[in-house]
Design brief:
Elements: E1 6-10, H1 23-35, E2 40-43, H2 55-69, E3 74-78, H3 84-93, E4 101-105, H4 114-125, E5 132-136, H5 138-141, H6 147-156, E6 160-165, H7 170-179, E7 185-188, H8 194-199, E8 204-207, H9 214-225, H10 229-248, H11 253-261, H12 278-291
Parallel strand pairs: 1-2, 1-8, 2-3, 3-4, 4-5, 5-6, 6-7
Helix pairs in contact: 1-2, 4-6, 6-7, 9-10, 10-11, 10-12, 11-12
Amino acid sequence: MNIFYGTGVAIVTPFQADGRVDFDALGRIIEHLISGGVEYIVSLGTTGESATLSKDEKKQVWEFTAKTVNKRVALVAGIGGNNTAETVAEFKAFNIDGYDAILSASPHYNKPTQEGIYQHYKALAEVSPLPIILYNVPSRTGSSVSAETTVRLAKDFKNIIAIKEASGNFDLLNQLMRDKPEDFLVISGDDPITLQMMAMGAVGVISVTGNALPNKVSSMVRTCLTGDYKAAHAAHYDLIEFTRLMFTEGSPAGVKSALKTLGIAGDTVRLPLVGVSDTTAQNIKKQIELIG
């Protein structure tokens, strides 16, 4: 199967108490994900708090991640922005060693038209050293990539191979699944509705929840890929409350709390994010104990 079938995890960037990147913890998380059966890792997506990392820190995290993964699973870099020229320059400068694709979110804040979104991705596709996975996440960007724009990009640029679809808009998904090229992949970008999206033809998920529970998430996704959705229901239902808690007080604060409970990494986040409340942390701990 395509290397992006199954479970990808948008890996967190762990920080020490003083705010510095905790590379020892990052190594432990990577091993946790690989041993948990994920198919690929996304480094410095939104969950990785990429907006708060310096250029030097990003370079260090990407290089450390590639070296630690050592091609045991596929690897994706998150590179995006709302300044097209600057994002183009980042694509050109990116060291592709160890990486298989680039995940790039639609421009945030500017609220471009569909033509603006198309032209932004066209500029990236023309310089990208790796295949591109589009990312539609209107709850963060302030605008949505329409099904028509995604299909247009998929048909016009062979190196645009997939979309991480996190709009939660099933009317959009209906149109996208009907009209996209056969080999263009749709990937869930929304943990709570991964099973439902896969029933419609999505090939997997890029997960936040999988940072903490990679085995549970990847097992459910692989079961969905076999077409046995009834068998996948149990894992889906087991994960509902835990997944809700991952986002109750913002991401990645929730999943970092879970990683702290598991003894894998600390729960420090960088401002303007803050950690979850004691009540939510306790509820996360209870869910981990229930799920086992």
